[in-house]
Task: inverse folding
RNA sequence: GGCCCCAUCGUCUAGCGGUCCAGGACGUCGCCCUUUCACGGCGAAAACACGGGUUCGAGUCCCGUUGGGGUCACCA
């Protein structure tokens, strides 16, 4: 059992393609078969080293690994041409000397008469040699009678009349193979048994099958997965926002969150929502892949991400946050703060944002919410707190809570009246982790300093 | 337009003829917890597109309508 994922290097790894790759990978892993990766780099202009690396990086980030070495379609070009000529010899393909202009003319004529265009090339059954030295393409002699059917693992049985399939091009006039020929040859040569891909390729399956049958090759099993749509139901495109796997990584999503989200998009396993990589491999199948396109929902991805952030190792998160914060940060402090920080972040950006106060330089800048909390009265309260906190010898959470509560009691105010100004003074914000945790994290010297920056001496 | 595919809460989905006055999750809205924000807990509103069949019985099978999508290159 061999599957393959065959992306073309377009400069980014489309989220929809990534899901197809994930399904293809999971299917192979589930059945203990081989998962192959082939880069469709026949378009020389776009297939730069960078574009290829983007795909490789993205897949690696998601944790998808591949059997054998990575294959490149461009390496097999000679083989593609060989098969095309084999097809001509078998009488299953022919040289067509129709010019692009002639083709265009016929197409436009058909369109003007509002009838579907089906090419019937006079070269199909021509036994005479073509014009001396004239350019030609090689076309498949597609069957015209009957129908072609596939038993798709996702779509079920799908049949199409052979009259719908035209004599498509196998080899261009410059001798290069078309995608249609190349995939078929590569899949066959690589021993691919299960072709799992987007259902935008469903119509191609019939054409490809025609080549396979002409060559007498074993027919692969197909599984055409519905595409991912944007929130508005239209095909996912740039105007829907982030499209590439890298975009989501940069946005602060964890790979396991995207993995889980993509897995659940178009596939389900009962009521299970949080699914680990191991469970995914154990559970994945094709009969539970839905047949209708599913819409991309950022909110659900975010909630999954929030979940995985809470689950993630503090050290790992600290490093990711440090990267985002840039400059010198105390990794140790970050790790200690992480349990408090990660409960309130949905992505790494928010996580980094929440950690910023730890490393801020005095005097702190107050945001609007914090500034509003610092009234003359609350500044006086801070003065009282400063004095009490200055005497604390055991600078830890419980002791700090006891002291702060006493200060509030003595001043005759609720804890909140003191806690909020304290938060403002200590973090420059109106929201933060628990105030006693903040004090403990910052340490006595820094805490006292930050409070002093904002307080008013009680006796002045 | 031709051909092909699809159709359960706003979204992702469970459901594979009766156990469904349709279950879970995200989102939304309440309440609780609480020093803020989160987290967590509890609860609510919210769907079988429509019309015909088949069947003792249909969200589940068939047909049609409507709506959505895909595809029609010497691109992949």
Result:
């Amino acid at each position: 059992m061999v599957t393959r994922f065959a992306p073309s290097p377009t400069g980014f790894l489309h989220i929809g393609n990534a899901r197809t790759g994930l399904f293809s990978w999971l299917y192979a892993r589930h059945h203990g078969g081989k998962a192959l990766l082939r880069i469709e780099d026949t378009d020389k202009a776009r297939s730069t080293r960078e574009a290829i690396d983007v795909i490789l990086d993205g897949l690696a980030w998601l944790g998808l690994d591949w059997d054998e070495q990575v294959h490149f379609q461009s390496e097999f070009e000679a083989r593609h041409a060989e098969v095309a000529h084999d097809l001509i010899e078998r009488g299953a393909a022919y040289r067509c000397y129709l010019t692009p202009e002639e083709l265009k003319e016929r197409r436009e004529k058909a369109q003007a008469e509002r009838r579907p265009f089906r090419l019937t090339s006079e070269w199909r059954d021509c036994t005479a040699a073509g014009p001396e030295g004239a350019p030609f393409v090689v076309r498949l002699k597609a069957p015209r009678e009957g129908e072609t059917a596939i038993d798709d693992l996702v779509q079920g049985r799908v049949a199409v009349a052979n009259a719908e399939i035209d004599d498509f091009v196998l080899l261009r006039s410059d001798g290069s193979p078309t995608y249609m020929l190349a995939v078929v040859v590569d899949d066959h040569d690589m021993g691919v048994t299960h072709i799992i891909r987007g259902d935008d390729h469903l119509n191609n399956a019939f054409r490809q099958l025609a080549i396979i049958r002409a060559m007498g090759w074993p027919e692969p099993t197909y599984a055409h997965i519905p595409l991912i749509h944007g929130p508005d139901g239209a095909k996912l495109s740039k105007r829907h926002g982030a499209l590439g796997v890298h975009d989501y990584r940069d946005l602060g999503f964890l790979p396991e969150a995207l993995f889980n989200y993509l897995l659940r998009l178009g596939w389900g396993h009962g009521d299970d929502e949080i699914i680990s990589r191991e469970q995914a491999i154990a559970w994945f199948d094709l009969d539970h892949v839905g047949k209708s396109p599913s819409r991309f929902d950022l909110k659900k991805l975010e909630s999954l991400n929030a979940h995985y952030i809470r689950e993630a190792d503090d050290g790992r998160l600290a490093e990711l946050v440090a990267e985002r914060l840039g400059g010198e940060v105390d990794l140790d402090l970050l790790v200690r703060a992480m349990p408090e920080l990660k409960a309130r972040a949905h992505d790494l950006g928010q996580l980094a944002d929440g950690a910023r106060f730890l490393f801020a330089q005095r005097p702190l800048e107050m945001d609007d919410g914090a500034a509003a909390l610092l009234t003359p009265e609350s500044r006086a309260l801070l003065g009282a707190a400063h004095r009490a906190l200055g005497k604390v010898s055991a600078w830890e959470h419980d002791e700090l809570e006891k002291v702060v509560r006493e200060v509030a009691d003595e001043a005759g105010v609720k804890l909140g009246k003191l806690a909020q100004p304290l938060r403002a003074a200590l973090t420059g914000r109106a929201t933060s982790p628990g105030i006693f945790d903040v004090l403990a994290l910052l340490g006595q010297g820094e805490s006292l300093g930050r409070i002093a920056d904002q307080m008013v001496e009680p006796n002045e």
User: Anything to note?
Assistant: The first strand of chain A starts at residue 2 and ends at 5. The radius of gyration of chain A is 32 Å. The mean pLDDT of chain A is 92. Chain A is about 45% helix and 10% strand.
